Amino acid sequence: MALKIADALLPTAFDLDIVICMLQKIGYVPLFVKDYDEALQFYSDNLGFISNGDMPMGEGLRWITVLPSADAQTGVTFMLAQSPEQEALVGHQGAGIPIMTLNTDDVAGDFERLSANGICFMGEPKENPYGTDVVFEDLYGNLIDLVQLAQ
Fold first, then answer.
1. pTM to 2 decimal places
2. Strand 120-121 versus strand 75-80 pairing type
């Protein structure tokens, strides 16, 4: 049986396994900030995030990462806005939609706790087909969606 050129170019099942396994998770999502320390304080003190690293990078830059919990696989990296274009994005990275979703198993309890910590919510928790959620602002005005997924 003759092998067609197109067949020779198609990946084998083994090749597909390699491609599928290469991208396994999202590590860190970048967030432009005006000041490293104020962002770290807000995300740690107000939201309860855990600092996962703070390394000097030279020229006043730092590699700062935070996680929402100790077992989280995805976190946030603070990126100091350095150009006018980056400064314009501080607080507007989502262009009016949430920049991230924080999953919780108790949206009502977290709503109360975060409200007591001074977090500005855009309303009360609301039930939706996917679960119950409520949106809040970070220190710069970026929107974040707090979600308790439906069971």
1. 0.81
2. unpaired
91-151 topology per CATH: 2,3-Dihydroxybiphenyl 1,2-Dioxygenase; domain 1 (3.10.180)
To which CATH superfamily is domain 26-90 assigned?
Answer: 2,3-Dihydroxybiphenyl 1,2-Dioxygenase, domain 1 (3.10.180.10)
Per-residue pLDDT of the chain (151 residues; tens, 9 = 90+): 454 545 555 555 555 555 555 667 889 999 999 999 999 999 999 999 999 999 999 999 999 999 999 999 999 999 999 999 999 999 999 999 999 999 999 999 999 999 999 999 999 999 999 999 999 999 999 999 999 999 8
